[in-house]
Specification:
The complex is a heterodimer of chains A (542) and B (69). Chain A is an alpha/beta fold. Chain A is 27% helix and 28% strand. Chain B contains 4 helices and no strands. The longest helix of chain B is centred in the middle third of the chain and has 19 residues, at 29-47. Classes of the chains: A alpha/beta (542), B mainly alpha (69). The complex binds flavin-adenine dinucleotide. The site of flavin-adenine dinucleotide has 33 residues of chain A, from helix 1, strand 9 and helix 8.
């Protein structure tokens, strides 16, 4: 393996010296979701302890496609540019039927956004950058080689039993975030069912170092290619000239024989060409679509793979888990700081449960298209593929994965009024990260803070006095078509080419209330201080 | 509200029926299956409206479970 794993040993902690500490939050699992949760909490000033069983980052690559929304969240911790620099940026996907390209799609919709639709990077790198960001953050106590073996939820606290190389200890916290992956110990300790459907087909997944410059680095997906007759195949470029190949193998296979490196290379050379290559990582997977019925169990909150699992076609696993983390962290922080009622945490279940349902639905449909179960299903699948070569309408039916986009929480109990807009940014959706030059950065999200903010499209008119003195926890931001106002409150953003105005369907007077997680809580055509405050209260669960 | 038209709407019923069965003449069973699937997809796209299509799918399936038993 060319990646150099850094190993992190167990370090003594207060509990191991028999001291009792009541932590604000314990996070079980230091994968991408647990680490992002810890970083997000710290950004709100909330300290946490991360308990991680292993002593290093992800074994093998697993997740590779990191979505725009993930990059925007990671950017708040200085990690997105590292991912981008190490990784491979792409937005074109090519689809083949047999050996013929039937069409391609382009995921890059809006010009000027800070981040691309996807950056491909091996999961161990992404985790390494998160681990480094966590190490820079004094509010996070990251404990390696610390395996949670039991979770005991109580009325006013949660206790965990931790196994370390130096023995066991018990730790306590007000809140527990279970981000301990598909085999979650927390889920088991609470005796929770994790139901759904399993797909029978096996997929061979390998990361290959290719010692040659390959001409085509777009996402490529084949149905019935001549190099792998009858099944599907997928290839992606990652960082360090690493390539991810994926072959559908069917249900009845000899797993060990298939993982033989020589055999993997033989398959891959038929796909990529007769170049020298080495196998970095290989695995065989079957896929599941399932979720916990509820993501909140009192003081225990489930996030990421511990809460839901999807097939990887669509890159929705890690990306949705990272959105869980950001959705949960601000709510938990507000509750911990006494600035929102406990009930706000129920909206985590409502919003991210809706997201999990959507992800399971979309990935299950993709998997079903890839693996027709009956002859009749196959007839339709093949008819779609045949028609797609000539007829654009059929291309919309070809489903090789509907790639992860940010969730819009359309039915959230936190949503306020939608103010009769046609277009713009929907209530429940995240803000587009368009250019908005300011002292704080080059794009809109660079200027958003860890609190509620009111984007006001005032079009050069002086800010109403009521705006400036809105409320301690609502900061107004003026967006003007001309240059930004130079000094003083409220903060002001320039929108010289009107792109923000267009994206928000803004007219003079338009206001958008933004939550700390950059999602829209409510919007109006005209500023009204009372309406804004009551929408903010609603978005806090009051 | 039913959106699917089930009242007579074909301009030339006999002619259409003839064209439909003639199209399958001489095709092996697998190709005839493909023809039917393509035809459904083409017509579905022409209709477009999701509610109408779902009503048609449901209506087409009606009674078949009982028959196959
Ligand atoms: C083949 C494949 C391809 C994928 N491709 C993509 C993709 O392109 N994009 C994408 O977004 N996602 C992808 N995914 C999914 C992605 O890898 C997962 O969704 C993601 O890793 C979930 O993160 P997590 O932090 O919830 O869980 P994990 O990454 O599993 O992390 C859980 C952590 O908890 C630790 N842990 C477990 N039990 C305990 C315990 N008892 N005590 C303490 N610690 C514990 C583990 O050691 C681990 O570090 C893919 C997955 C696979 C398998």
């Amino acid at each position: 393996m060319s990646y150099q794993y850094k190993h992190h040993g167990w370090q003594p902690c207060p509990e191991a010296r028999d001291e009792t500490v009541r932590h604000k939050a314990i996070i079980v699992g230091g994968g991408p979701v647990g680490l992002t949760t810890a970083l997000e909490l710290a950004a709100y000033g909330v300290p946490s302890v991360v308990l991680e069983d292993g002593d290093t980052v992800s074994e093998g690559s697993r997740g590779l496609c990191w979505s725009k929304r993930t990059l925007e969240i990671l950017d708040r911790h200085g990690v997105a540019e590292q991912v981008r620099a190490r990784g491979y940026t792409w937005h074109t996907g090519r689809l083949f039927h047999g050996d013929r390209e039937i069409y391609h799609f382009d995921l890059q919709a809006v010009a000027g956004e800070k981040f691309p639709a996807f950056v491909n990077l091996q999961q161990y790198y992404t985790e390494e950058f998160l681990v480094d960001a966590v190490a820079r953050q004094p509010l996070i106590d990251h404990r390696w080689q610390s395996k949670v073996v039991d979770v005991a939820p109580g009325n006013d606290c949660v206790a965990v039993e931790v196994e370390t190389p130096a023995g066991r200890y018990r730790a306590e916290a007000d809140w527990l975030v279970a981000a301990d992956g598909t085999r979650s110990a927390a889920r088991r300790a609470l005796g929770l069912k994790f139901d759904g459907s399993t797909f029978e087909d096996c997929f061979l997944i390998a990361d290959l170092k290719v010692h040659a410059a390959l001409p085509n680095a777009d996402r490529r997906f084949w149905f019935h290619p001549s190099f792998h007759p009858g099944d599907t195949a997928l290839c992606h470029k990652q960082g360090d000239d690493m390539w991810r190949v994926d072959f559908q193998l069917g249900a009845d296979i000899d797993r060990e024989a298939e993982k033989d490196p020589a055999r993997v290379i033989a398959r891959a050379q038929k796909m990529l060409g007769p170049h020298p290559m080495t196998v970095e990582w290989v695995s065989i997977y079957t896929f599941q679509g399932r979720r916990l019925e509820r993501l909140r169990h009192g003081r225990v909150l489930f996030a990421g793979d511990a809460a839901h699992q999807v097939s990887p076609f669509g890159a929705r696993g890690g990306n949705s888990g990272i959105q869980d983390a950001e959705n949960l962290a601000w709510k938990l922080a507000y509750v911990i700081r006494g600035k929102a009622p406990d009930r706000l945490l129920d909206s985590y279940d409502a919003e991210r449960g809706e997201a999990a349902d959507e992800n399971i639905l979309l990935t299950s449909r993709s998997t079903r298209f890839l693996t027709p179960k009956t002859a009749a299903e196959r007839v339709f699948r093949d008819a779609v593929l045949d028609l797609a070569g000539e007829h654009p309408f059929a291309r919309a039916l070809v489903n090789s994965g509907r790639l992860s986009t940010a969730t819009i929480h359309r039915r959230s109990p936190l949503n306020g009024g939608d103010g009769g807009f046609a277009g713009g940014v929907a209530v429940g959706g995240p803000c587009p990260n368009l250019p908005a030059p300011a002292a704080t950065g080059s794009h809109l999200l660079d200027s958003l803070g860890r609190r509620f903010q009111l984007l006001c499209f005032a079009d050069g008119a002086p800010a109403p006095a009521a705006l400036v003195e809105l409320d301690d926890d609502i900061e107004p931001i003026l967006v003007t078509r001309g240059a930004a106002r130079s000094q003083g409150a409220p903060q002001s953003l320039a929108d010289p080419d009107g792109r923000l105005h267009d994206a928000f369907a803004a007219q003079p007077g338009t206001c958008y209330l933004l939550r700390p997680d950059q999602h829209v809580a409510a919007r109006w055509r005209r500023f009204d201080a009372d309406a804004v405050k009551s929408a903010r209260d609603r978005a806090l669960g009051y | 509200m039913a959106k699917l038209r089930t009242d007579p709407n074909l301009t030339d019923p006999d002619g259409f029926y003839e064209a439909l069965i003639t199209a399958q003449e001489g095709l092996p069973a697998a190709a005839a299956d493909q023809l039917k699937a393509r035809l459904i997809l083409l017509l579905a796209n022409h209709i477009g409206d999701d509610e109408t299509l779902r009503e048609a799918v449901a209506l087409a399936r009606e009674g078949l479970e009982k028959k196959s038993r």
